Amino acid sequence: MKRSAFPELAEVQAVKRQEKHIENAAPATLMRPVSPPTIARKASKPGPRLSAVEAGELTVDDHFALFSSKLLEASRTVLPGTSRISHAAWCELYQHNLNPQGRHFVIHQHDHPVAGTHYDLRLQCNGTSSISFAIMYGLPGDPNSRRLSRNATETRVHNLWNHLIETASHSTGSMLIWDTGEYSILPYRESKQAPKSSSEESDHSGPINSQHGLSESQKLHDAFQQGRIRIRLHGTRLPHNYTVSLRLSKDDYRSEQPGPPWWQRKKLSPGPARRETQQTSSSESESDPSTSSSAPFTVLNKDQLTSFRRTASPSLKNHHTTAGHISPSDHSSTSRKRPTKPTFLHTNHPSEPNSVNKVSNITGAHSENENENKDEDEDELETTRLTNTYPGGATNTISSIHQRRWFLTLDRHNSGFVHQLNKATGHKRWVRRWSVDDDTRDGFERFHVLGREVERSVVTGRLARDILRDEGVEGFVPRGGWRGVVE
Question: Where does the record place the DNA ligase D 3'-phosphoesterase domain (predicted)?
Fold first, then answer.
């Protein structure tokens, strides 16, 4: 057999003949006896974004069903040495407290892009709502720490279903459930003095008051009005008998909600009526120093404050006239009238000569609708500010005031510690107390809150970055500079 002078060329030609044969061959589907029918598969529709539900952009009928199913799907494997609550126990815990006497609590780790990492303590105050405190470095866990106290700032009254949230977005960052459970209110020592910021006062003020027959939410209401709260948190992560004290700052006894931020204030036209109002208000402020603009509020005694006497927030229907004692004549934002809809003067066909007038009116109607939507959003923000509640069913029955500052301290005595002298060093330290009843030690081993890179959810076992990834948030840049309290 004669060999080809170019064997490589022969191989290439053979490959081309094989490819041409494959192209001319009948499709494999026609070689079957009967071609199977095409099955139309429905594309799985993604559920509502949890961040949109949390922000109020989407409305759902059953928050519990939505969040419980989403968090069950996102649960990770339980790692050794981590605190976890089973999904069934978590659901039962929440549903058990869906009543006016409920005492549910949650601690959220919130990694906000602007405010940074902080921890929100939310305490159920009625059947649908919870008060909230923002704590910068989380709860204290070392009885001998040099930084035992924390600033706890009142925020908005949240809906109770917010206790179920784990979500993330570019605008709000990530949020995970750091701990959850039920709370108990312990009595506080009666005192006529204003709250102090020292930790010793909380350690030695023993349980004197008795509140038998009251639910824990009612005890919370009474303690909140007094500006002194001793609360024991029965959580999943927190140790047994963990107790903290909250005291309202003596410089922050405020009775009214703060004014709107500068970007929400209305720019009023300097007309004659406006100038007359400015002159009248300026003359009144000169005659009465307590109403001058240099002082944002007047510091009053506790007995003079309406917030400590109110038992419920004003109705949303007449919040302009009752909430914070504001009448329509006090603020132009509340007395603002919405513009009326434009009247269509021309009804001719667009092909007629005067059709441009109708088109301009249609454009004006579109812009008018945008203005109305903007007015509705502004009214909702104003309602939120005046009532200090988020929309969706929350009610401020406890008279929470936005941005009031409290002091939070570990109650070492009620947490199971005693002050003991170390004879070797001559210094006193807080040590775990021996229990005479069962010959065991009270108290707990110290712990530290270490932030978004370390702390995991007690419900799903996720880190903050896991929640960002699960929610499809890419390129999120967290705020730096946060450091946990370890000294």
Answer: 108-244
Contact assessment for residue 208 and residue 187, using Cβ atoms and an 8 Å cutoff: yes
Q: Which two tokens stand for residue 301?
A: 């005694």
Angstrom distance (rounded) from CA 348 to CA 325:
51
In whole angstroms, give the CA distance from residue 347 to residue 357: 9
Partners of 229 in the β-ladder: 246
Q: What share of the chain is helix, strand, coil (3-state, %, to 5)?
A: 30, 20, 55
The strand ranges marked E within 136-172 are: 149-154, 158-159, 167-169
Q: Percent of the chain, pLDDT > 70?
A: 61
**pLDDT tens across 150-192, in order?**
999 999 999 999 999 999 999 999 999 999 999 999 998 744 4
> What are the start-end ranges of the E strands in 243-370?
243-248
Which segments of 155-209 are extended strands (E)?
158-159, 167-169, 173-186
- Cβ neighbours for 403, distance < 8 A, ≥ 6 positions apart: 153, 154, 155, 258
Per-residue pLDDT of 277-303, as tens digits, reads 445 444 444 444 433 333 343 444 444
First vs last C-alpha separation in the chain = 91
Average pLDDT, the chain: 75
Instruction: List, for residues 306-357, the tens digit of each pLDDT value.
Output: 333 334 433 444 444 333 333 333 443 333 344 443 333 333 444 444 544 5
Contact 464, 123 (CB under 8 A): no
Q: How many CB atoms lie within 10 A of CB 218?
A: 16
Domain layout of the chain by residue ranges: 50-256+399-470
What DSSP designation does 302 have?
G
Three-class SS state of 15:
helix
